Amino acid sequence: MYDVAIKTEGLTRRFGDFTAVDQISFEVKKGEIFGFLGANGAGKTTAMRMLTGLLMPTEGQAEVAGFDVYKQAESIKKSIGYMSQKFSLYNDLTAEENIRFYGGVYGIGRNELPQKTDEVIDSVGLQSVRKKPVESLPLGWKQKLAFSISILHQPKVVFLDEPTGGVDPVIRRQFWEKIYEIADRGITVFVTTHYMDEAEYCDRVSIMVDGKIEALDTPKGLKQSFSCDSIEEVFIQLARSAERGQG
Asked: What does UniProt give as the signal peptide span (predicted)?
């Protein structure tokens, strides 16, 4: 039996009369790269916020890293890394100060922090600008720094919300090289993206439409099931089907 890093059953979130996430059920294996796809407004970020302990579900069940989202949200936060869609570091702090601040938040000991800080600076290539405010850095460097900080404490699961949004193709490729590296170390990667080609890099992919998971399989399996040559074509089929259903 494999270890399950994330498990949901009927997970739902409503805001008044609007259902943002509607009865989603799935499992993610330890060390798996799990792609969570969908158009803007499909419910991806809402689902991720529930799984990270930032938003309480309306109904349904979910466990992350072995902890219940209702009863053990604080334990979940200590066991995961999270990189938000919007840049989450402090612009007025230097790269070095951001690393040390978040290292403290993640519970890394004071004696260990200098070494961890140097490791992150070296991995991102920020040696020459480590003492400059983050706001002065190019977007690609900011995103790579945020990603490195999200895994600073060796979490069991890392949630990446649109991590490559707005960066150039070279940076995108570097991001995915890092994602493969941490998955090889046993860290589970739960990633949302609107770049359909990136879905091909995932072990399995789910596609959300209007708050529901309409398809879930390996990239190869999805393309075979829908007789498509790409995940983008699968996504378009599902979106058109949903539009016809509403019409």
From this structure: none
What is the number of alpha carbons within 13 Å of residue 152 lying toward its C-beta? 34
Q: Are 102 and 94 in contact (CB under 8 A)?
A: no
What letter would DSSP give residue 198?
A: G
We report the CATH number of the domain holding residue 86 as 3.40.50.300
What are 175-192's pLDDT values in tens digits?
Answer: 899 999 999 999 999 999
Crossing angle for the helix pair 139-150 and 113-124, nearest 10 degrees?
140
pLDDT confidence band for 242 (50 / 70 / 90): confident
- Which range marks the domain in which residue 198 is found? 4-246
Distance CA 32, CA 183 (A): 7
Beta-strand runs (E) in the chain: 4-15, 18-29, 33-38, 59-64, 67-68, 80-83, 157-161, 188-193, 204-209, 212-217
Helix (H) or strand (E) holding 143: helix 139-150
pLDDT tens across 102-118, in order? 998 888 888 999 999 99
Number of domains comprising the chain: 1
Q: Is this model's pTM higher than 0.85 or not?
A: yes
